[in-house]
Design goal:
single chain, 406 residues, alpha/beta, 16 helices
Length: 406
């Protein structure tokens, strides 16, 4: 890194009233969970694509995830998906993660890949299937207790394809009953993050179709239930940062699943299509972190940041690295917003002045800042370059094809 480049950047930000020491501290504190399934073979509804070197079991997934943390210093935990990551001995998996310098993060139940769930899982009209689905949720609570996880990410594919196919109101009740049973089995330190998606694979109605439904359900369940916002799970044009602000103000924003999309799916690398949206989401979170209300400040500090991507055509570890680097870049830019300048313009009702105060932070090149932070925490200034030169990608090719796919 050029010391001259950073000195110029530092002077530039100082003149704007930005304290780079504070910015650096916040960048160092940002932790982004990576998903075990992001390291495995994946594909579309048409085909799963096999790659050389993909992990053959959950233990190898953690080995790959540890490389991402080693190179970024920002990814100390790995989300697991059950039964994709089912093992006979979860204590052994936990110890393996610890030995690698990472930990097991959010536990994700899977209620969408068995034949029994063709007409729904916890909302199925068949009581026996509802019981099976609820038992799986309880199984995941037990797994979380064993591995020391305190977060559950819940996404349901439940829905219907045609008018009249199901009793929508009955399914609403069944959803609540299942999650209430899971909620009551959780320890006081655990959090239930309820995700939503407006369509796919259900094309007429989805049981948890938007943030309002997830918010209402979380409120009914209690303070340990919160909403999980997946950046790819909204209709085109949705103002996601508005949803973020609303949930923060209600102390119900539990977490993010980062990804991106151009049309209808959500498996593109975060920040690859609309980086300004990601920047604006972080702006709202940072603004809440500076609120006078301590509850709102606490809510902004309690967000679980997670990548949720299945890299179909990209090499898995470089794709994960790119995802993390993109998140760090937009977070760094959002930290450069002079919030006092924004508020002063808002009070004057200076429309373009307020917009300019936000936008100009987005236009800064934060590469010198991120390189300085990486030097200070002892990781490579260019994690992608370091990985490609490490030989790890070539070494894992010995695993061959046919890894642990979802």
């Amino acid at each position: 890194m050029s010391d001259k480049a950073f000195a110029l950047f530092e002077e530039q930000q100082s003149n704007r009233g930005i304290d780079l020491a504070v910015v650096k501290a916040k960048l160092k504190a940002l932790k982004i969970e990576t998903p075990s399934w992001g390291y495995g073979d994946s594909g579309t509804r048409f085909k799963v694509y096999k790659q050389n070197g993909v992990p053959r079991n959950p233990f190898e997934k953690f080995e790959d995830a540890a490389q991402v943390h080693k190179l970024t210093g920002a990814c100390p935990s790995v989300a697991i998906h059950i039964p994709w990551d089912k093992v006979e001995d979860y204590a052994k998996l936990k110890q393996h993660a610890t030995d690698l310098g990472v930990s097991i993060g959010a536990v994700n139940p899977n209620l969408f890949q068995e034949d029994d769930y063709i007409f729904g899982s916890v909302t199925n009209s068949n009581a026996a299937i509802r019981r099976k689905a609820t038992d799986h949720l309880l199984e995941c609570v037990d797994i979380a207790k064993t591995v020391g996880s305190d977060v559950f990410s819940l996404w349901f594919a439940d829905g219907s394809n045609y008018p009249g196919q199901v009793d929508i109101r009955a399914r609403k009740t069944w959803m609540y009953e299942a999650l209430k049973e899971m909620y009551e089995a959780m320890t006081p330190s655990m959090r239930m993050l309820i995700e939503y998606k407006f369509y796919e694979p259900a094309f007429y109605h989805t049981d948890l179709a938007d943030w309002g439904m997830a918010f209402n359900l979380a409120n009914k369940l209690g303070p340990q239930a919160e909403v999980l916002v997946d950046t790819g799970h909204h209709p085109q044009g949705t103002n996601i940062e508005h949803i973020v602000t609303y949930l923060l103000d209600e102390n119900k924003l539990g977490g993010f699943h980062f990804n991106s999309r151009k049309y209808g799916d959500d498996d593109l690398i975060v920040g690859s299509v609309n980086p300004y949206e990601l920047f604006l989401i972080f702006y709202q979170i940072i603004d809440a972190a500076n609120d006078k209300n301590p509850q709102i400040r606490q809510a902004s500090d309690n967000i679980a940041y997670m990548i949720d991507q299945s890299h179909n055509i990209e090499r898995k570890i470089p794709a994960m690295l790119r995802s993390v680097l993109n998140v760090q870049t937009q977070y760094a830019k959002a930290l450069l917003i002079n919030l006092d300048e924004v508020r002063e313009a808002q009070e004057r009702q200076d429309v373009l002045g307020a917009e300019d105060a936000v936008r100009k932070a987005f236009e800064f090149d934060v590469a010198p800042l991120l390189q300085a932070v990486r030097e200070e925490i002892g990781v490579p200034v260019d994690p992608m370059k370091a990985y490609l030169e490490s030989g790890y990608d070539e070494a894992i090719n010995a695993r061959g094809k046919g890894g642990a796919s979802w």
